[in-house]
Write a structure and sequence with these properties.
Elements: H1 3-7, E1 9-21, E2 24-32, E3 41-42, E4 45-47, H2 54-66, E5 74-81, E6 91-101, E7 113-120, H3 121-124, H4 132-149, H5 163-174, H6 180-188, E8 194-201, E9 209-214
Parallel strand pairs: 1-6
Antiparallel strand pairs: 1-2, 1-4, 2-3, 2-7, 5-6, 8-9
Length: 240
Amino acid sequence: MTDREHLYLRIAVDLVVLTVRDGELQALAITRGNEPFRERPALPGGFLRAGEDLLDAAVRELREETGVDGDRLHLEQLSVYGAPDRDPRGRVVSVAFLALVPNPPSPTAGSDASTASWSPVAALAGTLAFDHDRILADGVERARSRLEFTTLATAFCPAEFTIGDLREVYEVVWGRRVDQRNFSRKVLGTPGFVEATGGKRMPEVGRPAALYRAGPAAALNPPILRSVEPGLSGAGQGAA
């Protein structure tokens, strides 16, 4: 690579898109259709266009490469990655975003992605193109940390959910067990974390479970901190 090529800076966006699916923490990945790293898995993303806002670029790339509508997701800026040789095409700085998805849709590959699919985080770790392994690990840790201090766990849930559904989000994202009684007490004792809908879910066996929706609160005070209880086998592991 020449000095002139090093001076030519391009801006890209990459997305860590997470969901709780089949009892696992899963991420949205594509298979690259073009060089470099053709046929390798990667995070969705691409180059910023002239006159385009970073967030708009992230939403566009997500839609073009996977068919997922980012306008309906929780989407936040994660970090900036600018190692000089992170991209063999030249000097590329990437602004990464974290997105959380409830009820994940089936992705549809497009643009320069030959496939798009949900995969367990543990299966993706160590396989991704560019520096996307690091970006994925950072995104998973951001999600884990945010669950401690904010009500963001509800972004993994559908419009109506049970306390058990919410507890499963914590267990899968953290990769460890959460005490059922203490968790329910903390959630229901935190003003604005959840709001009862008045509805109930009728299971095939057992008592009906009350349904809730996300409340207006954003911060948890006191926080719900990660415990030291034994981990769930394979849940949320592999990207920490």
